TrEMBL record:
<feature type="signal peptide">
    <location>
        <begin position="1"/>
        <end position="22"/>
    </location>
</feature>
<feature type="domain" description="DUF2846">
    <location>
        <begin position="36"/>
        <end position="106"/>
    </location>
</feature>
<dbReference type="InterPro" id="IPR022548">
    <property type="entry name" value="DUF2846"/>
</dbReference>
<dbReference type="Pfam" id="PF11008">
    <property type="entry name" value="DUF2846"/>
</dbReference>
<protein>
    <recommendedName>
        <fullName>DUF2846 domain-containing protein</fullName>
    </recommendedName>
</protein>
<keyword id="KW-0732">Signal</keyword>
Amino acid sequence: MKLKLTILLFFSSLFFLSGCTASGPVFTQIESPKPGMSKVYLLRRSAFAGKAYCPSLKYNNTPIGCLKDNGYLVVDARPGEAYIGGGDFRLLFEAEAGKTYFFEYGYEPLPGYSSYTAFVEEVDSTYAMRILPTLNLSL
């Protein structure tokens, strides 16, 4: 009986966690910004910490989606001061027309490793292009 319960819990956990992973199309190429706009990519590599959490993100108060584990989102940003935020973070930046920006969302352990905190940081295009082909669009 204990073995059956353990197996049931294991497969239930897999089912639960699999719903938190991005399942859209795999990234293929960088999209050019629309005229007079900038392009923003938000990346989230797969990690155990926070896997079941999917932050609902907004760009300047407009919902843009939920950034799932192992996923990415793309946003067309107007030039000027902009913010992307949701859940446990808010990122402010100055968007320039014609530019493409890459930001990574993730978790890092707090001292003692008993809990984690979310972070968002700008990453360069070389790093982003190594990571993006391993990600799916977060739908």
